Amino acid sequence: MKIAVCVKQVPDAAATKRIDPGTKRLDRSGEDALNPVDANAVEEALRIRDASGDGEVVLVSLGPEKALDSVRKGLAMGADRALLVSDPEAAGSDLVATSFLLAKALERESADLVLFGQQASDSDGAVLWAAVAERLRLPLISQAAELTLEGGAVTGKRQTEFGYDVIRAPLPAVVAVADSINQPRYPSLKGIMGAKKKQQDVLSLADLGIEAEDAGASGSRTEVLALSDPPPRGETRKLEDDGTGAEKIVEFLAEKRLL
Amino acid sequence: MSTLVFLEHHGDELQKGALGILAKASQLGGDVAGVVLGSGVESLAVDAGRFGATTVYVVDDPKLEAPLPQPRVDAIAQLVQEKGIETVLFAQSILSADIAAGLAARLGAGLNWQLVDIAAQDGTVVGKQSALGDSVLVDVGWTTTPRLALFRAGIADPVETGGSATVESFEVGFEEHSLAAEMLEQAHEESSGPSIEDAEIIVAGGRGLGAPEGFGMIEELAKALGGAVAATRAVVDAGWYPYSAQVGQTGKNISPGLYVACGISGAIQHKVGMQNSKVIVAINKDANAPIFEFADLGIVGDVHTIVPKLTELVRARKG
Ligand SMILES: Cc1cc2nc3c(=O)[nH]c(=O)nc-3n(C[C@H](O)[C@H](O)[C@H](O)COP(=O)(O)OP(=O)(O)OC[C@H]3O[C@@H](n4cnc5c(N)ncnc54)[C@H](O)[C@@H]3O)c2cc1C
Ligand SMILES: Nc1ncnc2c1ncn2[C@@H]1O[C@H](COP(=O)(O)O)[C@@H](O)[C@H]1O
């Protein structure tokens, strides 16, 4: 059983996220992290691998070279190796270009199962898997809160606006998991040390046989035209709980005549 | 300008969100068409005329019976190509997002998401996207046609135009991979339990409660305040609390006088269901949690110490 997991490096939650007004792209110069919900996809892959007795978990990512620093967290959790597609020409890829590049990388792996996280914290898209599944011409299950593998098929249970769906797809298949599917393990110290030694390949566009015109801005079909401030919000107050947090809330509710 | 709106239906009802997008489509000028996909759905199509569609295409096929995205990609792709449609609009939903993204790959068409508005500008189309946790509004464009747009849930209400639509049926073929996934079961739960939609005060719990038992103290606080209990998808999926209490994109959309969020990060899909609450109070131990960006009062601290104490204080105050 070979499982590929698509993971992304995103700005750390503590960093203020901004779009660079010059390049009109997300400013990726600050602290980074592995996209938090992608850890759920890695965790699910590890569980499936370990339950099946043998198999391999490959992390697949598209991003700048420093993305390996974040991808390594997945290796520290227990994934076997990582593959990063990185090329200056790939920067600024939108959904059309990103799905194209990732699909090319995934085609080389021909995994039985391709897993995705719930959504990237910097894009709030929750869409990439559907584009990748289409490019790979594989069946898709998204938002899976439960997964079972049996008889060469994967079955997922997922929430919709109306309740729960149960969907089955024959392998190979693409599955995006919800953040409720599991509790990702913390990497152990041994895992963190071992991660550095695991195989980590960086592939350029040329390595994947991709023309520059199919990547980055030229391979994209959307563009950012302008940035503006959102409508002003009401006043917000944030207080550190110094032992009087509950009192502060009561005072506030009284002030608002809600008590 | 020819615009197509995907008209999602559930049972024998067109979805309100999609009908609302018909009104957005009319802002672009030109023809506004809708498309209904399913099995035995012909009669639904007529309804869309009242909300601004002049043509409604119907693809009626048993292969479209289950609400799965991939066969719908096949159908819309063929329709777009045959009719020369320039812009396709979707109201955000679990189904629509997967169709829109699949279509982007199939047609090599640009997809912009989290849109809150769209307009025709100098002969082209510009979308307004709310990005990075609603900290910035981005004007987004498309470099080619067809253009694909996915609107944020609940941004537009249907507008009755009193018109009527020409219904046109359309036949399509399906790709093998599009038919590979199969719907085994649709457990469409009826809402049971106390309604959170009518409550003036809501106390909501998320994964920060740590365990299902955490909802005990949430219920206590709700009782003390005279309110009802709500939950995030993460804890509903995990079985900590019933689906009927879920707030957000795939749950309920509520606007109580007070919303107390306990151990909730404030993800955008949760926010869209509760941001119209008059007063929002949040308790979260992570000072960087997005919920603090839009809570009127945020306390950075542990729910396990603050919530029980708050309940006590509220009780004492109410006597
Ligand atoms: C298409 C789609 C639809 C979705 N629909 C919905 C929806 O309808 N409703 C919905 O809610 N979500 C929905 N989601 C999921 C959403 O994106 C988030 O994943 C979810 O809301 C997170 O739930 P949470 O806040 O409970 O958990 P988390 O994001 O895990 O947040 C838990 C929070 O608790 C805090 N915490 C932990 N321990 C403590 C403590 N002891 N004291 C105080 N704070 C603590 C943490 O700091 C964290 O901020 C949807 C996602 C997608 C992609
Ligand atoms: N650049 C990337 N490289 C690899 N995987 C990605 C990348 N961007 C997004 N993903 C995966 O796709 C999921 C959904 O991303 P998005 O559609 O951007 O919200 C994420 O949770 C990741 O699993």
Model description:
The complex is a heterodimer of chains A (259) and B (319). Chain A contains seven helices and 13 strands. Chain A has a nine-stranded mixed sheet, with helices on both faces. With 259 residues, chain A is an alpha/beta fold. In chain A, helix 3 packs across helix 4 (128-136). The mean pLDDT of chain A is 96. In chain A, 28% of the residues lie in helices and 29% in strands. The longest helix of chain A is centred in the N-terminal third of the chain and has 15 residues, at 38-52. Chain A is globular and about 60 Å long. The longest helix of chain B has 16 residues, at 303-318. In chain B, helix 3 crosses helix 4 (94-107). In chain B, the strands form three sheets. Chain B has a nine-stranded mixed sheet, with helices on both faces. A five-stranded parallel sheet of chain B has the order 14-13-15-16-17. Chain B is 27% helix and 29% strand. Chain B has 319 residues and is α/β, with parallel strands linked by helices. Chain B has helices at residues 16-26, 42-47, 69-83, 94-107, 215-225, 233-237, 268-274, 303-318, and strands spanning 2-6, 9-10, 13-14, 31-38, 55-60, 87-91, 111-121, 124-131, 136-142, 147-151, 166-169, 182-187, 201-205, 228-231, 258-262, 279-284, 297-300. Chain B contains eight helices and 17 strands. At the A-B interface, helix 3, helix 4, strand 7, strand 8 and strand 9 of A face helix 3, helix 4, strand 7, strand 8 and strand 9 of B. Bound molecules: flavin-adenine dinucleotide (FAD) and adenosine monophosphate (AMP).
